[in-house]
């Protein structure tokens, strides 16, 4: 049998994220906010790449 005093201990380093109010570890990034920022950055980079492609396609056609 297991000893009664060897149970799991309570986490005291859990806090709420100031921007989304979800639980996170103290002194760590919030996983939800990090994934949200990462997703937005990837979308922004894709939009910029598409704009560069459109600009490169349109500029030679307008010069002829």
Automatic annotation (TrEMBL):
Annotated region described as Disordered, given as residue ranges: 44-64
Record-linked InterPro entries: Ribosomal_bL32 (IPR002677), Ribosomal_zn-bd (IPR011332)
Protein family membership: Belongs to the bacterial ribosomal protein bL32 family.
Any single GO BP term: translation
GO molecular function, one term: structural constituent of ribosome
Gene Ontology CC annotations of this record: large ribosomal subunit
Descriptive protein name: Ribosomal protein L32
Keyword hit for DNA-binding: no
């Amino acid at each position: 049998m297991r000893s009664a005093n060897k149970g799991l201990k309570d986490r005291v380093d859990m806090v709420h994220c100031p921007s989304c109010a979800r639980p996170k570890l103290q002194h760590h990034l919030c996983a939800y906010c990090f994934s949200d920022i990462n997703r937005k950055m990837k979308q922004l980079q894709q939009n910029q790449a598409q704009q560069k492609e459109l600009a490169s396609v349109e500029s030679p056609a307008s010069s002829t």
